[in-house]
Write a structure and sequence with these properties.
heterohexamer; A: alpha+beta; Alpha-Beta Plaits; two-stranded antiparallel ribbon; 2 helices; 7 strands; 39% strand; elongated; B: Ammonium transporter fold; binds adenosine-5'-diphosphate; transmembrane helix (chains B, C, D); membrane (chains B, C, D); Ammonium transporter (chains B, C, D)
């Protein structure tokens, strides 16, 4: 099993979910995060006090996938999340030792 | 109201004249319409502090200080109510001398259901003194903007209590209670000197004595929830009708004109700040629009019973631009941390208004002509009023703060400041 | 107002006397000042429920129940308006007997543009009944604090509708509508018994019958957004000027005094609760300050047209300390889950105020002396008024709840409770 | 008020008659009670826009547009104040002809402390014109709901300024300023045509010309913070007492009845929308309850000085159900993106109210009988009033928008829309 | 060392923490997340506009544990977080190369 | 490639970012989290109801780094985030199998 983590632009979440759905993937966990990177943030000014907000709202998607699907999953995410503009984000792939489905106690690929 | 006393240089005579005139006919009678409007005005001015100022200020601080900031307005409201009852009203409106009232009205023991304050003879004294109480409440609440996010709550209570008795009551007496500024002909319809310059200057002294917030200039101190500030500013705008038109202490044409010019000046100042910002920064901000509105409200306060709409519009436009400059450029250049611009908006706006009242006053409205009607001396009189207020407010505020610093201590610890006052001082959090 | 009827033991005679006196001179005439103040008061009391109570309560619940809590106040406002129109007003203020009014004013068919209610002869009946309507609205809205976060919306509507007709209207009639408590000389200027003890006791019964929230005592139930509660408490404070001073049904000295004592008692209670907490817990909390203010408002309600500022201050201080004790120690010791302290603040505060009204009443203000002026029997009369209210409120509330429990069912399912009422009952969420 | 003029077909004569009658006795005198109520009403109507509409609308948009949405109401308030002063009031209430006023009151140079507007002779003109100003402010503020979340701020200011002069002032003149609709006997007590149909239709045109928001129908556009919307709706409800009862321009029985029927219709409509939703969707929503209340307020607006409680209840129930249908079914079926239902609630609710006013008007209340009292022609007159308003509002709004689209451009870029207007247009964020 | 990540129902957090406490574990990091899976979300309706919210609020627990404790930890979480109803969540186990306690600079198992 | 996750005190975020900047690192993802550990939380009291909030607001930093930089990165974070008081947090290091830059499709070290 592998664990795929992707940082994407928030408004791309729905498209990515749909793309993964067509691969038969229905489970994932999503977190609101702040991204620092090459993309520059916007400036806020409050009564003359300027704050350059150099983080940008991003969304982190995490999903465990069977080894066989990893390549497809990465490709699907990349295709769906891409705008071609700076700040599109990253995909990271990790080894996953074990997965347990809490409800049933199933382990491994069955637990996904 | 007593402000009417301010119109002539022989104030006491003038003050008693109408009452005397009445007395010839019969005992002055309560007027139910005047009373209705003054009770309404009292509610409106209370609304300005809670939740008005509470929200306006809370909307501009960081999340960890939202509740503590609201708490300041709320606690000041309770504290000053009791202080005004105990001695504040008596010191401000007891006959006394040119400097201070007396103790004849201590604890309000002398006020009954049918009491009447001579210079406000068509309404019950209970209403007059409660209306004045709401002014005594909002003035210290405004100061709190200057030291937001870093003052100890206990020190704040001590400060506000002492300040109310030692600074607010005397200056109120000077201008409206039969004191020397009113006698000298200073025009201040609803509190340009008594409330705004006074609070603004006291705020500046607080900001200087307490020093800057930890992280000022480096950390992101962006307002957490400006929507709260917009609600607060709106309440201020609406409530200010009671503040200004209520200061006519009657439901008449002068009150109506005070309401109209308040509306016009406020709108003008909101547009002016917004416009100045648009030109200088490229974007008109919400914070700018509401700050401008408050600046306009402040500036038209002394003028409201004396000017016509056109004068009010000019006052508003001037206040909007000048306060934009003081809250952005001036503050950052001089480097003091007047957190929410108590001085930049109330102090500076109050000065603009007090002086321009001397320019735009119209005899047909308030009985006194201004510089445009040839009475150039009125501007000088106005400046004298400002200087007297500034001097006493600055000195007395400084002394009170120093004494408190040596006794209870003014500032929270750095750790409390970084945890936020909500949890550190009050044990509560916005979840 | 009708409260004036309550001053003598021969209420009906007294009630008609001034009208008769008027009639001798001429037909009683509308007074535009009184009418203006009463329309303003009506708006202020409406403001107390929406958004006052709505915010005060919504600010104290968890995020998942914020909207549902506001919905309760809002829906009660709409529902009781129609019920009051259909029959509530008639049952409360129709002539009837000592226990209940009649059906002469059903659907308000008998109310025209020029109708006048005899005991409020200087204002249109339309204004009198709308003012009274706002009291009929806020009373059930207060109860809702006791069962927050767990009652079905349908059951709540049924309960409030029945309660308004079977509990509020009768008790209102007893005290203000010509019923036996008013005749017995019970002093209740603006609703210590009718509104607050009544709502508080009903709330306690609700809390007991519905049982505790799931997780009470173990889960973290910290308020989600106390800023909302501060806004709500502020609206309550401001609106209460209409509640108490409006209960003079005139724009006069008694109304003015009612406003002043309201302000003083509220401030005293806010400081007292804050102080008690500071001593006991080490920190004065924002929730404490606003709770204290509301306790003071509650306690001064029956007293407001009868006492002077000093009496009000004592009432406020007492209410602040006693309600602090009931909302913290008493509730946790007895273990009932009165979620937002409808009983702890309104029930207990109402009792404190009702009894102390008998102590501090001043003949020169409201026509009836209290214990301090030698009329010790007034305290007994006040206690009788409290007991009658408690008895009927408790019994009738209990019966209504039991019947509803057997028919529509009172409580949401555990799953709905854990999902939160916003999504479960209304299909909406704070994002 | 001028609405009284609308009762006869010989409006100008009628308008001058009472004044003349007065003049025979003596100069018309200011009434302090009327003045008190009208100043209060002015404050209440201002409260409806800031923070009323500001919150009602801001509570329904997405987080990224909350501040920008509040900014629209606030900036409109400032802008229209100045426009009304400069020329709007003169065009609406200057004598002029049947179509438009004149320039006699430009800059308010002719308005002094003691000026009186003939048809509102018991209050100062300053109060009359400020009261009317608050109507001129809220009407464009309502339109903004239709194009929320996508219009350029600069374009919005241009649009509102032009619209105020070219659409609001003329239609206001037609109905209340001595124009042809008032002369024709169209009944519109507080602005069913002038304010609500006018704003609703203009909103619909805006929604059509600007097009849908990006992602409309696919993205989740759930309201970010409905609690704000509930506060806003509550402020609207309370403030509407000033809107409707204030439109009596007196503190009398007609004002009182206007207040009562406002309350009843609003409650009825809130219950009706809630009930309809409960039946159709299975859950009564908070957004539904407040939307229903606003629909009821809108519908009773033209009727308020003409009907009795029972008629008001029917109007409210009808408005609740019909506006539920228009804001849910109609909009989604036709597919236009009237973001916050300016047309669905104000346009449709205004039409329901305007027409039913012709049905339920009672001669004893407002001097004109409706269809139920046999005057079936009144319904036709009402429909004519609606059609004239719709026609001019639609055409003029369309032309203004097209011109602005070709010059300053109406819509933000797609990127700005996706970033949110708060940061894109104003450089600020809710943290 | 292993790194255990669990996605659970929010109201189970306290129970899970207690269960871990009995194993002597006192450190962990918690994040509010949104879960997509088999469990269906609720429908919100605003003036006729329907949004099926297909994510559900979940809580993510992350904790580093010594190898010896992993089995017990996983079991404890599974037992405490289980309701038996759909949506109970998952447990993932990763290899952890290194841990550093920032305050002291300790590394490895001592840093936990 | 390695994946470094650090839990730190929120007010240290800016210093950490600067420290990493001097190593040439400009990309990272930040999440607001709640930490449970030895550090004790504060007590809130609402009308007599006491809640000891035993979690504390922390910030999680995640960044993928080339193997060569890991040691320096860990050291930099530790130095910048340290106050010496309890609750300073932890740094965790994981193996990272793969990284993809969504915008360009680059993989491995080039994608960072
Ligand atoms: N080394 C990294 N480790 C973790 N997250 C990163 C890293 N670099 C970038 N990110 C995340 O990816 C987002 C996009 O990166 P950025 O450099 O702005 O654009 P791009 O990926 O298009 O080059 C950042 O906002 C951040 O959340
Ligand atoms: N493949 C996965 N990768 C990451 N998280 C997942 C995955 N599948 C499910 N989850 C998480 O677990 C939660 C519960 O999953 P769900 O399918 O609804 O129920 P269950 O685990 O009982 O089968 C989801 O809300 C999601 O947060
Ligand atoms: N075993 C662990 N796994 C994951 N996170 C942990 C672990 N132990 C501590 N943490 C995180 O580190 C933070 C600080 O830990 P704490 O024990 O309070 O202080 P210190 O690290 O100084 O000993 C905690 O708030 C928590 O977020």
């Amino acid at each position: 099993m592998k664990f795929v983590m992707a940082i994407i632009k928030p408004f791309k979440l729905d498209e990515v979910r749909e793309a993964l759905g067509t691969l038969g993937i229905q489970g994932m966990t999503v977190t609101e995060v702040k991204g620092f990177g090459r993309q520059k943030g916007q400036t806020e000014v409050y009564r003359g006090a300027e704050y350059v907000v150099n983080f940008l709202p991003k969304v982190k998607i995490e999903l465990a996938v069977p080894d066989a699907l990893v390549a497809q999953v990465v490709e699907a995410i990349q295709a769906a999340a891409q705008t071609g503009k700076i700040g599109d984000g990253k995909i990271f792939v990790f080894n996953l030792n074990e997965t347990v489905r809490i409800r049933t106690g199933e382990r491994g690929d069955e637990a996904l | 109201m007593i402000k009417k006393l301010g119109l002539t240089t022989t104030a006491l005579v003038a003050a008693l004249a109408p009452v005397a005139a009445f007395a010839q006919d019969a005992a002055p009678e309560l007027n139910s319409g005047d009373t209705a409007w003054m009770m309404t005005s009292t509610a409106l001015v209370l609304l300005m502090t809670i939740p008005g100022v509470a929200l306006f200020y809370a909307g501009m601080v960081r999340k960890k200080n939202v509740l503590a900031t609201m708490m300041q307005s709320f606690a000041i409201c309770a504290l000053v109510t009791v202080i005004w009852m105990v001695a504040g009203y008596s010191l401000a409106f007891g006959t006394g001398n040119a400097i201070i009232g007396d103790l004849s009205k201590v604890m309000l023991f002398s006020v009954g259901k049918d009491s009447v304050f001579p210079a406000a003879a068509t309404i019950p004294e209970s209403v007059f003194l409660t209306f004045q109480m709401t002014f005594a409440i909002i003035t210290p609440a405004l100061i709190a903007g200057a030291f937001a996010e870093r003052m100890k709550f206990s020190a704040m209570l001590w400060f506000m209590g002492l300040w109310s008795l030692l600074v607010y009551s005397p200056i109120c007496h000077w201008v409206w209670g039969g004191g020397f500024l009113g006698s000298d002909g200073v025009l201040d319809f609803a509190g340009g000197t008594v409330v705004h310059i006074n609070a603004g200057v006291a705020g500046l002294v607080c900001a200087l004595v307490l020093g800057r917030r930890v992280g000022f200039g480096s950390e992101n101190m962006a307002p957490f929830n400006l929507a709260l500030a917009v609600i607060g500013a709106s309440m201020l705008w609406v409530g200010w009708f009671g503040f200004n038109a209520g200061s006519a202490v009657a439901s008449d044409g002068r009150a109506g004109m005070a309401m109209l010019v308040t509306q016009v000046a406020t709108a003008g100042a909101a547009l002016a700040w917004m416009g100045a910002e648009w030109v200088v920064r490229g974007k008109p901000s919400v914070l700018g629009a509401i700050s401008g509105a408050v600046a306009g409200l402040v500036a038209v306060t002394p003028a409201s019973g004396f000017v016509l709409p056109f004068g009010a519009l000019v006052i508003g436009l001037a206040a909007g631009v000048i306060c934009f400059w003081s809250a952005t450029w001036l503050k950052h250049t001089l480097g003091y941390d007047d957190s929410l611009d108590a001085f930049g908006v109330h102090g500076v706006g109050g000065l603009v208004g007090a002086i321009l009242t001397g320019v735009f006053a119209v005899e047909a409205v308030g009985g006194t002509p201004g510089a445009l009607e040839g009475n150039i001396g009125q501007v000088v009189t106005q400046i004298v009023g400002c200087l007297a207020t500034i001097a006493w407010s600055a000195v007395a505020t400084y002394v009170i703060l120093r004494v408190l610093d040596m006794t209870v201590g003014l500032r929270v610890t750095t750790e409390q400041e970084s945890d936020g006052l909500d949890i550190a001082l009050h044990g509560e959090r916005m979840q």
